[in-house]
Design a protein that fits this description.
The chain is built from two helices and ten strands. By secondary structure, the chain is α+β, with helices and mostly antiparallel strands.
């Protein structure tokens, strides 16, 4: 399964994106501030630009697994092998204060906010769980 995250609205506090599954629009997401990090950067380059808890993950392509989250006490999608970041999940939340690099889905968006996040998350998670049984899941962040 191929997901694409297309970032389109950037502020000093957050980044809003459109999330697609196999080129079909799924939902919006909010993340921390896009600081122009890329997967090709070295860990040293990333750490020089990253502000802990306030930086979106680097542009690139990553595998997603569904693993148990100790923090949330349930299985959640995990974006794996993100240089300079750990524990990057997809989970419900509405504002940049609800994330530390994670992707928060929503049905609609405003400046620095997504809405109906739980609804968007559960619809997305159902599709990811089903796909995870038979295929690998990847996300490309553009």
């Amino acid at each position: 399964m191929e997901l694409t995250l297309q970032r389109f609205q950037r502020t000093d506090n957050s980044t809003i994106s459109k999330l697609f599954i196999e080129n079909q629009f799924e939902c919006y997401t909010i993340e921390d501030t896009d600081r122009g990090l890329t997967q090709e950067m070295t860990p040293l380059e990333i750490s020089a630009l990253k502000i802990h808890g306030k930086t979106a993950i680097p542009y690139g392509r990553y595998q997603i697994g569904i693993t148990f989250s100790n923090r949330f006490k349930k299985p959640l999608p995990l974006i794996m092998n993100v240089t300079g970041f750990e524990g990057i999940r997809i989970h419900p939340g509405n504002t940049p204060e609800n994330t530390e690099g994670c992707l928060l889905p929503g049905m609609t968006y405003d400046t620095d906010r997504v809405n109906a996040s739980r609804e968007a998350f559960y619809e997305l998670f159902e599709k990811l769980e089903k796909a995870n049984k038979t295929e690998k899941i990847f996300i490309t962040i553009k």
